[in-house]
Amino acid sequence: MNERTVSxxxxxxxxxxxGIVGGGPAGLLxxxxxxxxxxECVVLESRERAYVEQRQRAxxxxxxxxxxxxxxxxxxxxxxxxxxxxxxxxxxxxxRHRIDFPGLTGGKQVWIYAQTEVxxxxxxxQLADGAPxxxxxxxxxxxxxxxxxxxxxxxxxxAERTLRCDYVVGCDGFHGVVRDAIPDGExxxxxxxxxxxxxxxxxxxxxSNDELVYAHSPRGFALLSMRSHTVSRLYLQVPNGTDPQAWxxxxxxxxxxxxxxxxxxxxxxxxxITQRAVLPLxxxxxEPLRWGRIFLAGDAGHIVPPTGAKGLNLAAADVTVLARAxxxxxxxxxxxxxxAYSRQCLSRVWRxxxxxxxxxxxxxxxxxxxxxxxxxxxSQLDRIAASPHAAAELAxxxxxxxx
Length: 403
Ligand code: RFL
Ligand code: PHB
What we know:
- Helix content is about 35%, strand content about 30%.
- With about 400 residues, it is α+β, with helices and mostly antiparallel strands.
- The chain has 2 domains: about 15-85 and about 110-190 and about 280-360, FAD/NAD(P)-binding domain; about 195-280 and about 370-400, D-Amino Acid Oxidase, subunit A, domain 2 (D-Amino Acid Oxidase, Chain A, domain 2).
- Helix 2 packs parallel to helix 9.
- P-hydroxybenzoic acid (PHB) binds next to loops.
């Protein structure tokens, strides 16, 4: 631990109303919204600040996510630097088809603003004026889930500490520990693991297209995305277990070229690759998202493959609903909102699961895929190009619904 970290550590109380485990987007946004509602909370995050701020992940924000970030006070830089997109392009059979969001959805759009930036903005706000946020605080377990005062156990700076809470919210991602506090048999997890991964790169080169391009190709899926007007984010479908270091930069660009190939003279611009990582794809939903005084939010409760760009947006939706419910309890004493939390969120979650599954299985090539499967995929893509109804279904799912 360095001097800077020590000086930034707030005094952490031994008890609070809402103990939030995990300082990713879900935990940070929840803390911000609770603070605004006058509900006391504490955030415990296992990693150091720099790690959390640099973790390369999502890039697409639904309008409803932007709206809640604005309302939380974290909208200023997003307004300035976020890029509004009016559509995406689908690519297959060496051609492209544009999905026009405003035209198909009654005026809706999405925003391109990196998760890293959302997290930086929320951390800055919270450290300046917010609930206590402790980095390098590893939660080891939550006990007393069946009592009215659950306890969060964590280690920080070599010491074991506890935080007694009225409620605990697990915002600790897919590998979190809060879920384990709930007795065996009380939760059900529905899951699908995909037989391929994404190889993601960040490159110092202006994006080669103004909008995202989702490409189906016989060689596998590819995605062209961006972080800014000067930084591209690209993904390739690869076999599970692929070593990202095993590919040279040239091999990566050649493969991207092959998968984005279209008739005509469009070309993918190349530039220095500054980051690379391989991530497996998974769909998973845990039900219910609440047991007694323990709540699950964001990736701690559900995972989607990134093809639908939904994970961060679902996390924001969960904590918006949860913060409203805690606000209601605080103001009126009514627990109706908390009681409705799981049901309300799961309906949005399952819609996003279906859409993410649809996007993933329509655009990727499974290792055991036969020509029949491929013809079905092409037929589906042709249908989207030919039918405004099919295109609108995709567009409405992509832009999301109001909260
Ligand atoms: P996170 O971000 O995983 O944060 C969980 C936090 O909990 C901490 N933690 C603990 N802290 C204390 N004690 C413990 N025992 C702890 N265990 C864990 C972790 O250090 C971490 O800081 O979950 P959260 O907050 O729910 O946020 C979810 C999003 O991060 C995730 O859904 C998205 O990134 C998914 N996703 C995308 N979502 C979108 O909406 N649009 C996109 O375009 C999009 N693209 C993506 C994505 C995810 C990707 N990856 C890497 C999975 C692209 C990629 C490549
Ligand atoms: C990204 O920019 O990282 C991104 C964009 C769209 C997706 C997934 C990831 O569907």
